[in-house]
Amino acid sequence: MHNANYQKIWKVVTLIPQGAVASYGQIADLAGLPGSARLVGRALRAAPADSALPWHRVINAQRRISFPFATPGYIRQKALLTGEGIRFSGRTVNREHLWQPDLALLLWELDG
C-alpha cells in the first residue's frame, strides 16, 4: 500500500517545474491522499538515492524549508532552490514561486 502511495507522490513531485515549490499538503492533495502531508515526507525520504526526484521543491505550509535552520540538509535544499532562481524573504519562500498547476496538467498527468 505504501509503495503505491509513494509512487503517486513521486509522480506529483516530478511535475513541479524548476523555479517553483509546493507544500507537503498540496502534494498529498494532488496525489489523491488528502490529509497525508506527513506521508509525503516519508515518501521523499524513501525515494531511491539515484532518482532524479526534485525533492528540494517541496516545502512546508509556512513556505519554509522543513530541515532545521543551518543544518546540512537545510543548506543543501536552500542552495538547490536559489540555484533555480527561487527567492526568499528571510527563511520564507516568496509567494511568486508557489506552484499553481493548471487544469490540463492535472487531467493529463495525474489521471489514475
Task: Please identify which CATH superfamily we are dealing with.
Answer: Winged helix-like DNA-binding domain superfamily/Winged helix DNA-binding domain
**Low-confidence stretches at least 5 residues in length (pLDDT < 50)?**
none
**Would you state the CATH class?**
Mainly Alpha
Proportion of helical residues = 40-55%
The CATH topology annotation reads as Arc Repressor Mutant, subunit A
Rg calc:
13 Å
Question: Could you say which structural class the secondary elements and strand pairing correspond to?
Answer: mainly alpha
Query: What is the 3D shape?
Result: globular
Number of separate helices: 5
- Domains (count): 1
Strands of the widest sheet, in order across it, are: 1-2
Averaged pLDDT, please?
Answer: 94
Cα separation of the termini: 15 Å
- DSSP, total strands: 4
Account of the protein in words:
With 112 residues, the protein is mainly alpha-helical. Helix content is 45%, strand content 7%. The chain has helices at 2-15, 24-30, 37-46, 72-83, 103-109, and strands at residues 22-23, 58-59, 88-89, 92-93. Strand 3 (88-89) and strand 4 form a beta hairpin. Helix 1 (2-15) packs across helix 3 (37-46). The model has no long low-confidence stretch (mean pLDDT 94).
